[in-house]
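Journal club side-thread
Mid-discussion, someone asked how the predicted structure for our own chain would compare to the paper's figures. Pasting it here so we can look after the session.
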Amino acid sequence: MPRLTRVLPLLITALAAAAPATASAAATVSIVGKSFGPSAVTVAPGDAVTWTWSSGPHNVHVVSGPQSFDSGIKDTGGTYTHTLTAPGTYAYQCDVHPTMRGTVVVGAPAATPAPAGPAGAAPPTLRAVTVTKLGIVRLTSSTAGSLAIRVLRGARVAKRSKARLVQGVNRVPLAVKGLARGRYRVSLQATTASGQTSAPVVRTLLVTRAVLARHIVLMPAPAPAAIPAPAAAPAPAPAADDAGHGADHH
């Protein structure tokens, strides 16, 4: 008896080492009557789903998804475990009862966020943003870069333009050529040289006759036409002498 007591733990350890490893189930689906419960489960890549048969005959057959598998038809008391590695949605059914359907969603691993520009650099911000009655944007930018401008009327983009930003206070006349008079929205977004963008800022623009007139004033004036040089004056006639003869008379 003492000898058996010593040998039994060693035998159990050897049998456990020889047994095939089984995946631990992250979700369990029960097959009862003619339904899967729950009919939809979500797991992470690399997790396993176990189906248990409380009635039968049924099977689990994936009919669409990144991978296909089939448990084979099992009866009451059966189990089937499958590890899912490819992200996506797996739709399955029981071939014996095709109206029995279920889904397994395998979520994609969390994406690693892209580095946000140079170490320690914060995205640009726009502050104190106003649009004057003459259609001029005034704002303060936390950094230099470029300003993307979209003039919106309803859901339609009526005009796009860009302007250079300096760090600090900026004054940007809006391009309004071709716009009809009325109310618009202006969307402003800053971008730095490293590609970081600010949160968009939206303000109201009222295009009036004064705004359109301001646009005309700000347009570069045409170059003045060249003024022709005055014609050369004709040479004076030779003076006559006292006798009324020309200077070349001898």
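Post-session note: The domain at 22-106 is CATH 2.60.40.420 (Immunoglobulin-like).
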